[in-house]
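Q: What would this complex look like in 3D?
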Amino acid sequence: GAGVSQSPSNKVTEKGKDVELRCDPISGHTALYWYRQSLGQGLEFLIYFQGNSAPDKSGLPSDRFSAERTGGSVSTLTIQRTQQEDSAVYLCASSPRQGIDEQFFGPGTRLTVL
Amino acid sequence: AQSVTQLDSQVPVFEEAPVELRCNYSSSVSVYLFWYVQYPNQGLQLLLKYLSGSTLVKGINGFEAEFNKSQTSFHLRKPSVHISDTAEYFCAVTSKAAGNKLTFGGGTRVLVKP
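A: Here is my prediction, written as structure tokens for the whole assembly.
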């Protein structure tokens, strides 16, 4: 079946511009996660959606970062006023149910801020 | 809070030789442990997981890991590597308190040489 998909695969933007990154989780998966992978910080958690519950935003690095999940499916991660330190690979993952379980990762979006 | 330490950032190994990747974690609560592999320009793929039960866990592609609670370790092993095992390997931990949010180690880059 189809895995987690992310778009775009690559995004180059200028400092100060806003960007939107999209994640399509595996159909039927109730949990959705965003992680960031950068050279300096490694892999770090950003935000977590579980069903209709309020998202866990504890990993967002600043108020320039936000995310939403519409209809319990597609998610969009928005970064406003991008900075060079936002350059990283943004990974999305989904999981079939609440609780401890394997997370299925998408291929990521490579963001480069010039 | 939980943390993961992967002691080796790079491991060169000859084809058909065994390899061990070390992972140590820190947590004040019961943990669940994962090993993921990332091939070049791809997302993360689950190799194996420890949720409960037998402390020796077998995964895909001939990998196995052993959960050692007293040593807070979850080392990954393969008795005979192939060129195709060249990739980056990430150990990750979560707990019920963390809500399945993964905390990753810094990764170990394995280079299999002919």
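A: To summarize the key features: Chain A has a mean pLDDT of 93. Chain A touches chain B through 25 residues (CB under 8 Å).
Q: Very helpful, thank you.
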